[in-house]
Amino acid sequence: MNTLIYYSFNVLILSIIVLIVGMIKPKWILLWMEKPGRLPIAMIAGVLFMIGAVMYGEGNKQLQAEKAQQSKQEAIQKPGSEVPVPDLH
User: I need a surface site. Which of 2, 51, 66, 80 has the fewest CB within 10 A?
Assistant: First the structure.
């Protein structure tokens, strides 16, 4: 598995935890504020979710590029596999 995909799952899980804990007790997430609200928690969780989604997309793009490169290398190693054999009948 690609490392970006692995880390994106971690960021997505973190965003869910931040959202749940922040909606229950906003003070636990926003320690520096006197009376924290739930809207900043929702924004922080949303930003974390977007970061995780972008990381997952980029990881998938890299994985697809690696697979394409690998199949290209295999095609180069087997030059006869792509050339059709003419039927002489």
Answer: 80
